[in-house]
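Hi support team,

I submitted a single chain yesterday and got back a structure, but I'm not sure I'm reading the token output correctly. Could someone confirm the output below corresponds to the sequence I sent? I've pasted both exactly as they appear in my results page.

Thanks,
R.
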Amino acid sequence: MNSRTNVPVNVLVCVKRVPDVGSEVLLTEDGQSVDARHVGFTTSAHDQAAVELAVQVAAATEGSARVLTVGSPDATEQLRSALGVGCTAATLVEAEPTTLGPADVATEIAAVVREHEAADAAYDVVLLGNDAADSGDYQVPIRLADALGRPVITGMQTVELREAPEGGRVAHCTGAGPLGTETYEVPLPAVISVMEGGVEPRYPTITGRMKAKKVEIETREPAFPAIGSGRVTLTVPQTMSSSSELLGEGPEAAVAVVDLFEKLGVSR
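Hi R., thanks for writing in. Yes, this is the structure output for that exact sequence:
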């Protein structure tokens, strides 16, 4: 990170508490969410990358990074994890996650941004994971940008603040596109969604965890009634079966290999 201005940049990074599932994903009976009765909770890899970038951007400009989540009181665990790696403040909008849709989450984040801005605590950059690991809605960053009237870039892996030729700062971002690395620049303030792969998230140290426990988390009630997701159901894709056939061993397998190539239409 580098910046040739000395104005601190304040960053808001938004995370979500999601089930820490393994190879097998189970759904609740109503098909509305991942069944988390027998697993722990975490934040997704995208969110962890967003937290790392938030801490880096804030540190490079001597600014601050606040972490926010919209969810149950149990989500304070994920907030304190972010505090343990460098965020300096946290906000919990306390709500029942199953009642929320992406529009609700975006609306609540926007309400926090506006209220903090009115209290002279504006955010130059809002970072979010590209999508939630459990519901995969892919909507919150774009809905949030629309609510705030700010430009948005999605699917980025690195974020660097640079001085704009006309003054002020821009966010210089890169991400993996279908034809290779894509590069964008967007003026601040902006909303940026992050995918994993561009940075290596750090883990809380013992000292970081101790400091995180002492931070008072701002707790808020929802600013608006939830409208829900409108989701019909989640589905788990069927596992693709595979099989293998032993053609032979050593030189004796050569004839079988040639026959297979001919069957597949492979030219000699």
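A quick pointer for reading it: The chain has a mean pLDDT of 87. Let us know if anything else looks off.

Best,
Support desk
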